[in-house]
């Protein structure tokens, strides 16, 4: 994909990544740590994380197309290098979202479907708030959720900051123009 309505696709697609990745990260944290959110948001979280994952390589590919059509500066090179680090984080985020969904579905199956919104959750041997695998698995999944959410959001920030520097450094004046445009 090269252009959308005459504009480089990268500068439009990047907005999807900038919104979807942090939103997915927030939802992953909610689903990992808040049972009421888990029951209501586990499916949207899984779907949104996969959609974010799909947009990352599309945006990267569009960025590589654009890279061949702009001046090759150190700032563009830095942005390109950092941009390549987003895909592993997006994959990890989708995997964690799928693990959360899988644990939720297993917990719902074990509780006989009582894990519906407002219903009691299963407890007993091998479960923690209705989550299969016990406390150790719950803690490990929670830690993975925190690491993946924080890493993904930080990576989006780093990529966006480097892209803004590449696009705008030397392109504006510190002084406002006086007079008609």
- Encode the helix/strand succession as letters: EEHHHHEEH
Q: Provide the structure class.
A: mainly alpha
Q: What is the overall silhouette? A: elongated
Beta percentage is under 5%
What is the CA-based Rg, rounded? 21 Å
The proportion of residues forming helix, as a percent range, comes to: over 70%
Mean pLDDT: 89
Q: What's the total number of strands?
A: 4
The stretches of 5 or more residues where confidence is low (pLDDT under 50) are 116-128
First-last Cα distance: 34 Å
Transmembrane segments: 12-34, 41-60, 86-106, 136-159
Keywords: Membrane, Transmembrane, Transmembrane helix
Region (Disordered): 109-131
Biased composition (Low complexity): 118-131
Q: What do these coordinates show?
A:
The chain has five helices and four strands. It is mainly α and 181 residues long. The strands form two sheets. Strands 1-2 form a two-stranded antiparallel sheet. A two-stranded antiparallel sheet has the order 3-4. The protein is elongated. The two termini are 34 Å apart.
What's the arrangement of secondary structure elements?
Layout: E1 3-4, E2 7-8, H1 9-33, H2 35-67, H3 74-83, H4 86-110, E3 127-128, E4 131-132, H5 134-168
Antiparallel strand pairs: 1-2, 3-4
Helix pairs in contact: 1-2, 1-4, 1-5, 2-4, 3-5, 4-5
Transmembrane segments: 12-34, 41-60, 86-106, 136-159
Biased composition (Low complexity): 118-131
Region (Disordered): 109-131
């Amino acid at each position: 994909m090269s252009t959308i309505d005459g504009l480089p696709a990268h500068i439009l697609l990047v907005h999807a990544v900038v919104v979807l990745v942090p939103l997915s990260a927030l939802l992953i944290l909610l689903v990992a740590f808040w049972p009421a959110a888990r029951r209501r948001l586990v499916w949207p979280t899984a779907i949104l994380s996969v959609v974010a994952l799909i947009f990352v390589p599309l945006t990267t590919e569009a960025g590589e197309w654009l890279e061949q059509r702009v001046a090759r500066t150190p700032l563009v090179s830095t942005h390109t290098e950092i941009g390549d680090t987003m895909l592993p984080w997006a994959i990890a985020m989708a995997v964690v979202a799928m693990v959360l969904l899988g644990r939720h579905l297993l917990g719902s199956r074990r509780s006989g479907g009582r894990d519906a919104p407002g219903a009691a959750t299963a407890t007993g041997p091998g479960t923690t708030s209705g989550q299969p695998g016990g406390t150790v698995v719950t803690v490990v999944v929670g830690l993975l959720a925190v690491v993946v959410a924080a890493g993904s959001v930080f990576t989006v920030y780093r990529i966006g900051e480097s892209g803004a520097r590449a696009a705008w450094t030397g392109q504006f004046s510190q002084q406002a123009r006086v007079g008609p445009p």
